[in-house]
Design a protein that fits this description.
about 475 residues; 4 helices; 34 strands
Length: about 475
């Protein structure tokens, strides 16, 4: 074996707030110097020799993992107006192809955007967002073609396939159309890639003439855009890690201005959507896990509590309908879906899901009056699946389950929820997945990952990569550690 390289130490230190902080490896920051490059090459050579005996296994694992991926696939269509929208992938192509069909039998496919064609000739390409206009004539889409994370927005006329001459530069990915389908809102980015301005763009005009509607000067806040379930209103929000503010405006009149719903109060986070004449607000005011409030469109700052705060359950998202509202909740680290009547607070139910550990999130559900609700489901042993939940019949209908190529049989595996007790008696959830014949006796190798920051939970979802480990006797664990918001 070659000797493991050791970086040299220096006596470099930095004075911060009157304290001397030793940084003996400060010189490694100069990554373009010959000394640093020589050291990195030596590290790589050492690693390659040290791991040399595993090269055949590495190649075998890589081939197995890649071999389970189905390159040619299609998403479940979602209805919007008279169309069914979906995307698909083709074998050997890197990007998605976005399509639609009329919602009638034997309707031909119409490709509305092929990201593979957009990427041609560019060393870097990311498609940020795609939004069709309410009349389904136009799509606005955003692209980053240089890795700057500053996107450019283009508009395509689907009646003839032409691209509008105006291009909006320096934008975020968010796009929200006005009902007339001749104008939309978008966000622009500052030099730090912070969304800080909301603009209104009219088709056929240059970006320089776009009206500035909101300018967020506080660098702690990022702007976002959304629209109501029935398309009647547009929303803009400013959010920091602890505080938010939401504005609303009519989606039918491009001459209106944004109205702040509740202003901005330190440590108050809230989000808003609407249906008909009602506003629905998730608010953490005196409610760490959020509570559901309602208000009238005409008096948006007058809130009434609808679902009170619960210490064991966090409210995450809402989809209002005419007579009920669907609420995404998280209890004991597991996501659930509450179907709540709007006329009777005692009239609610939860769909039953088939496994003890799983993750769900809502589909787009564009149609505000549908009797079904599309959800995405997976677990550590169940590949990504799409269900329609029939509200009145309380029934889950499986629409699609991803195909895992090879000999994968989920019946050969088991996933469970366990808890690790840490200081002060706190119990941290562990999602443990293994082959059924693998015994939990402390003798098996384990592969564990964890995340616990910024309130972002680590979902107990499916990953085909761990199959190769479990087939070799590994126990695979996701630790839902504190800071991630799972509990």
């Amino acid at each position: 074996m070659i000797q493991q390289p050791t970086p040299r130490k220096t006596d470099f230190s930095t004075i911060v707030h009157g304290y001397a902080l030793a940084d003996p490896y400060h010189w490694l920051k100069q990554k373009d110097t010959q000394e640093v490059l020589d050291y990195l090459h030596a590290e790589n050579a050492y690693m390659k020799q040290y791991m040399g005996s595993t090269e055949q296994l590495q190649e075998q694992l890589y081939a197995e993992m890649r071999g389970r991926i189905k390159e040619q696939d299609s998403t479940v269509p979602e209805k919007s107006g008279e169309y069914l929208y979906y995307s698909r992938t083709e074998e050997g192509k890197q990007y998605r192809i976005f399509c639609r069909k009329k919602d009638i039998n034997d309707s031909p496919e119409e490709v509305i955007l092929d990201a593979n064609l957009l990427a041609e000739g560019h060393p870097y390409f990311v498609l940020g967002n795609l939004k069709w206009s309410p009349d389904h004539r136009f799509i606005a889409y955003s692209c980053d073609m240089n890795g700057s994370e500053h996107f450019s927005i283009y508009v395509k006329d689907l009646t003839n396939g032409t691209i509008h001459p105006e291009v909006l530069h320096g934008a975020d990915t968010a796009i929200e159309w006005f009902q007339g389908s001749h104008a939309f809102l978008y966000l622009s980015l500052d030099s730090t890639r912070r969304a800080y301005k909301v603009f209104r763009h009219h088709l056929g005009t240059e970006q320089e003439t776009d009206a500035l509607l909101i300018h967020e000067t506080d660098e702690a806040f990022f702007l976002g855009l959304d629209s109501s379930r029935d398309g009647a209103y547009l929303f803009a929000d400013a959010s920091s890690k602890t505080t938010s503010e939401v504005w609303m405006m009519s989606a039918t009149d491009t001459n209106t201005e944004f109205l702040s719903i509740m202003g901005r109060t330190h440590n108050h986070e809230y989000s808003v959507t609407s249906y008909g004449s009602a506003l629905y607000i998730l608010s953490n005011e005196k409610a760490t896990n959020f509570r559901l409030m309602v208000a009238n469109i005409q008096t948006p700052s007058v809130w009434t509590e609808f679902i009170p705060h619960r210490s064991e359950t966090r409210l995450q998202w809402i989809f209002p309908y005419a007579t009920y509202i669907i609420i995404g909740e998280r209890t004991a680290g597991i996501t659930g879906m509450r179907i709540q009547s709007l006329s009777d607070i005692q009239d609610f139910h939860y769909p039953d899901f088939p496994e003890p550990v799983y993750e769900i999130y809502p589909g787009k559900n564009y149609e505000p009056d549908s009797e079904t609700f599309q959800i995405h489901y997976s677990s550590p042993i169940t590949p990504p699946s799409v269900y329609n939940y029939h509200i009145s019949h309380k029934h889950l209908d499986l629409l699609k389950r991803d195909t895992i190529k090879g000999d994968y049989n989920p019946e050969e595996y088991i996933t469970e929820r366990h808890y690790a007790e840490v200081e002060h008696g706190i119990k941290v959830p562990l999602t443990i997945t293994r082959k059924r014949n693998c015994v939990l006796n402390g003798q098996s190798p384990a592969f564990m990952i964890g995340y616990g920051s910024y309130g972002f939970s680590l979902p107990p979802s499916f990953s085909s990569s761990i199959i190769s480990l479990m087939n070799r006797g590994f126990i695979c664990v996701k630790a839902h550690i504190r800071g991630g918001g799972d509990m």
